[in-house]
Amino acid sequence: MGAEAKTLTRYSEAFKQKVLQEIETGTLTPAESVRKYGIGHCATINYWMKKYRPQLLRKVVRIEMPNERKKQDEIKKLKAEKQQLESALAQSQVKLIVMETLVEVASRELNVDLKKTFGSPRPENPKRNSRNFSSKQGSTAP
């Protein structure tokens, strides 16, 4: 029974650096390097990258659709507008609370329910109004 012995391949430092340089410059991908140079597995190249060029593993490339950036800008703009509107709403609510408190205090001080009487016509004094009306018209009373 003859079990075939696996061949252990050792790569020189110069060879490893050459392969990593080609990957770093974008000339080859790790998979293309495996095929071109007959390297056992991509895991071997990944090990070299981890050991000699860790920056290659941390490299992040973001690929966006053309309209994706516009959407992100629009979302940012809408969030800013939302924040401004929420701030304006909060200020309006504070003003409303202040005004309601003012009406309550004034109602207590004047002993009049201003909420019920606000906007309703004042009770008229017929004598007073007829005098004021006649003096405003320029006519004299008999």
Descriptors for this entry?
mainly alpha; 7 helices; 68% helix; 142 residues
Summarize the structure.
The protein has 142 residues and is mainly α. It has seven helices and no strands.
What can you see in these coordinates?
- The chain contains 7 helices and no strands.
- The protein has 142 residues and is mainly alpha-helical.
- Helix 1 crosses helix 3.
Helix count from the secondary structure assignment: 7
Uncertain runs: 128-136
Give the overall pLDDT as a whole number: 80
Give Rg in angstroms: 43 Å
Number of strands: 0
Strand content: under 5%
Element string (H = helix, E = strand): HHHHHHH
- What's the N-to-C terminus distance? 145 Å
Counting copies of identical and different chains, the oligomeric state is single chain
**Helix coverage percent of residues?**
55-70%
List the helices and strands and how they pair.
Elements: H1 13-25, H2 30-37, H3 42-52, H4 54-58, H5 68-110, H6 114-117, H7 126-137
Helix pairs in contact: 1-3
